[in-house]
Request: fold
Amino acid sequence: MFKAIVSADTLGAALDSVSVLVDECKVRLDEEGLTIRAVDPANVGMVDLELSASAFESYETDGGVIGVNLDRLEDIVGMADSGQLVHLDLDEETRKLHISLDGLEYTLALIDPDSIRQEPDLPDLDLSSEIVIEGADIDRAVTAADMVSDHIALGVDPDAEEFYVDAEGDTDDVHLELDREDLIDLTPGEARSLFSLDYLKDMNKAIPKDAEVTMELGEEFPVKMHFDFAEGDGHVTYMLAPRIQSD
Amino acid sequence: MFKAIVSADTLGAALDSVSVLVDECKVRLDEEGLTIRAVDPANVGMVDLELSASAFESYETDGGVIGVNLDRLEDIVGMADSGQLVHLDLDEETRKLHISLDGLEYTLALIDPDSIRQEPDLPDLDLSSEIVIEGADIDRAVTAADMVSDHIALGVDPDAEEFYVDAEGDTDDVHLELDREDLIDLTPGEARSLFSLDYLKDMNKAIPKDAEVTMELGEEFPVKMHFDFAEGDGHVTYMLAPRIQSD
Amino acid sequence: MFKAIVSADTLGAALDSVSVLVDECKVRLDEEGLTIRAVDPANVGMVDLELSASAFESYETDGGVIGVNLDRLEDIVGMADSGQLVHLDLDEETRKLHISLDGLEYTLALIDPDSIRQEPDLPDLDLSSEIVIEGADIDRAVTAADMVSDHIALGVDPDAEEFYVDAEGDTDDVHLELDREDLIDLTPGEARSLFSLDYLKDMNKAIPKDAEVTMELGEEFPVKMHFDFAEGDGHVTYMLAPRIQSD
Reply:
C-alpha cells in the first residue's frame, strides 16, 4: 500500500536528482519516507535520495519496493503548475501507479524491481577535507572546466586554507580558488582527486544554484556531495569515483 | 479590388489557425469580410475561418478569390511589433499582394487559386453533445495524451454529466474527467469518438489558452471545435474526422 | 607587457563585432588602446575595431601584437555576469593570456600572429552618400530581405532624398524607403550598390539595435558602416565589397 500527496515541485526535484544518473530506479517505501539509491551503468556515479514523510502533504504506506521509469514520471510531474499537488496511489494487484493532478489521471506501469540494476552501497569513507559551498560556485567551476577539458581536479590546500578546482586542456587551463571568505565553511586537510567532468556536469544539473552543498574530499578518493531540498525534508548524496591521475 | 488595414495580431492569429493544417489556401474576399476554408491533404482535418470586415481598421473589396502561400505571409506579418498595423493592397493585374508595415513593403506573388486543393464542404452534422471548455484544458488533455499514445478518445458520459478524455498506450494510460464545475457549459448526450492525436495537436497550437472553445461530439462522428478571436470579429471552426475504433 | 581591467560587457561587445567575420585575429596593443583589423577569408567583409584605453578600468601596455582565438575568449567573457570586471594579464614568456573574473582564472594559449591572415588596409573611399540610421532599421531591412533573396541593394535617391533597400527574389520582392524623417541624418548623392546578404546579416548581428550607424554608400562601391559602443570609447567600422549587378 502506498498513497501520498506531494507538491509537484518537491517530487520533481527529487526525481531530477536521480534521473541525471539513471533512467530506471527502485523506490523504497517505508513509514519514514521514500528512498532511492542508484548507480550509473559504469559504476562511477552514485546517488542516495531521501524524501521524508514530512515532505508530503499526506503519506501512507505499509512498505515495499517499486520500479519506476524516471523519464515517464518526470514528464507527468512536469505537467503540473508550480505549487500544484500530485496524488500518488499504488495499485498492488496490477502493479500500476495512479498519478493524478488537477483532474488528470495517469496510470503508470511499474517495472519489475528485480529487472533493475542492484542498489549500490555507499561506502562510509573517512575523507580528510570538508567544504561547504554554494551550488552556484560548483556550476561556475564545472562550466569553466568544460571549456578546456573533460576532467577536473578538486582539491584543498590546507596551508593556504583554500578549496581549488583545476582543469587542464591541451592548450588552455582553468583554475578557481575559493578561500574561507568565498566558502560557507571549510575543514581543510590534504586532498586532491581527479574526476570525469561528464558525471560532475550531470550532478551539477540537479544541484540548486542556491543550495548549500557539503563536499567531502580526499587524496585520490571519491568525492561526496550532499545537499537538502524541500526545506530540509529532502536530502541528496552524490558520490563520484575518482579517475586515475595521468601524471 | 482589395485594400485593407488590419492589426498584425489579428491577421497573425487568423493565418495561424489555417497554417496548422495546410501550406497554401484560397482566401475568399467579399464585403462582409474574408473567409478561408481548407482541408489537409489526407482529408482528415478541416478549417473554416471567418474574419469579418469589422476586424479591420479599414476594408474595401469588390470580391474575389486569391491563392496564398501561408508560410510567406506569416513570416512577413511576424516581422511586425504587437499592435502594429499591416496594409494589404491587391494588384489585380500582376496578381501580387502588396503588404506594407511601418515603411517596409513586401510584394507577395499570389498562387493561382485553381492550383490549390478544392475547398471542402463542412457537413452540417447533428451531434449529440456540446461542451464549452477553456483552451487551456484542451492543451492539458492533448499534452498528457501525447505522452502515451498517438490517438485520443473524446467522450461524454450523460449520466455522470462529464466530458472525458482517454488515451491508451502500450503500458500507460491517461484519463481526464471534467464535470459541469470544470467546464464552462455542457449539453450532455451519448458521445465517444477516437481521433488522431497529430491533428488535434496541430489544431491545439492555434487555439488560444484563454479561448472559450465550443466542442460538438457524437458517437463515432467527427468533432467540431469553434472559437472566436479578435474580440469576436474572427471565428474559427475546426472539424476532425474520427479514426475507426480498434476494439 | 599588457595588463588591463575591463567590464565584461565592453570586452564582449568588442569581440562580437570581430567574431562575426573571423575566428582568429591579431590584437594590436599600444598606449592609446587596442585595435583589431580583420578580413574574412573571401576578402569581402572587413572590420576595424578600436577600443581606447579610456574604455578600460585600468590599462597598461608597452605595445605589441597578440594572436587570439575569438571563440575561446568570447566563451570565457560570456561566463561573467553583466557589469562584472575581467582582468587580463599577458605572460610574454609563455605567450599565454591570463584572464580572471570573480576568482576564476583562465589561461588562454595565444596564437602565433604570423600564422593569422594579414590585416587588411581599409581603403579611404570617397563615397557620395552618407546615411545615419538606427541599428534597429538595419535589422528590419536585413530580416525582410532575407525572406526573399540572398542579396540586397542599398541606395539613395537624391531627388526624393530617400535611402532605400531593395531585395528581389524569384517571386517576391522587398522594398524599404526611409526619408529624412525616418533617418537620423542624410547627406544624399547618387548611390546604389548590391551586396551579399550573408555578410550583412553577420555584421547586423554585432550592431546594437539602439546604435546610431553611419553608412557611406556609392555607385557600385563598397559600403562602410561605423558605430560607437562602450559610451563612445569603442568604435567599429565595417566595410563590405559590392557584388556585381546582374542586370
About this structure: The helical segments of chain B are 8-19, 70-78, 135-145, 197-206. Chain B is about 15% helix and 45% strand. Chain B touches chain C through twelve residues (CB under 8 Å).
